[in-house]
Specification:
Elements: H1 5-44, H2 51-78, E1 86-89, H3 90-107, E2 110-115, E3 122-125, H4 127-143, E4 148-157, E5 160-168, H5 190-200, E6 204-209, E7 213-223
Parallel strand pairs: 2-4
Antiparallel strand pairs: 1-3, 3-7, 4-5, 5-7, 6-7
Helix pairs in contact: 1-2, 3-4, 4-5
């Protein structure tokens, strides 16, 4: 069977991401090397070095580190699955991820209460991609949460399967930073890639906040089993 237009377009896009990652890596690696050599030379210098120059070199190094991190986004998207997705139980997947993360989240002081069905809500997708993205939904909420109880609710409504994580906010509100790379310590590209994964499966990943709480909601199109 010949590939559809959408499959051909997706394949071309993923190959372009892989190629761009390679093309960006070469000049960035050279820039990182030369900036680091300049920074070390300034640190060894005997004469007076203007503080602005020192600060500028340090800022440049940090910004290049950020750019190198973003290359991992090209790698992740370029390595995404092609072909036909499979049927999977989304409710069971979310429940499994929540249970696996419970000790880590409790260590942070976040106690999860899980509601809704633990199986029987089906979606089409690539299980490893959805599982990684689901795990990141929990961690994204937890990075902004204060200690206390969090609520997880798994549901199916109309044509959509969904779950949300609701937590009490700690000392900051995420706003537009919720799904940005490195928005919180330890986040790296996780929140950004999680949103991409849900959107690439035809769903959404959204955040909503009020004065005291943050709710992160993930949705995917629901399908009938069999």
């Amino acid at each position: 069977m010949s590939e559809s237009f959408e499959q051909q377009r997706l394949g071309a896009t993923l190959r372009a991401c892989r190629a761009l990652r390679h093309e960006f890596a070469t000049p960035l690696s050279a820039a990182v090397l030369h900036l680091e050599l300049a920074r070390r030379a300034v640190l060894r210098a005997d004469g007076d070095i203007p503080e602005k120059l020192r600060a500028g070199l340090e800022t440049g190094r940090k910004q290049l580190d950020e750019a190198v991190l973003l290359l991992d986004g090209f790698s992740a998207i370029g390595g995404a699955h092609e072909g036909e997705p499979g049927l999977l139980d989304f409710a069971a997947l979310v429940s499994r991820v929540a249970r696996a993360l419970r000790p880590e989240l409790e260590h942070r002081g976040l106690l999860l209460r899980i509601g809704g069905p633990s199986q029987g809500i089906f979606v089409d997708g690539f299980e490893d991609e959805i599982e990684r993205a689901t795990r990141e939904v929990f961690l994204t909420a937890a990075r902004w949460a204060g200690p206390g109880e969090g609520l997880v609710e798994i549901a199916a409504s109309g044509s959509m399967a969904s779950f949300f994580v609701r937590v009490a906010l700690a000392d900051a509100r995420p706003g537009e930073a919720l799904f940005r790379a490195r928005s919180r310590p330890g986040a790296d590209l996780g929140p950004w890639l999680a949103r991409w994964a849900f959107e690439a499966h035809g769903g959404r990943l959204e955040g909503r906040e009020d004065a005291t709480h943050l709710t992160v909601t993930a949705t995917l199109p629901q399908v009938a089993p069999g």
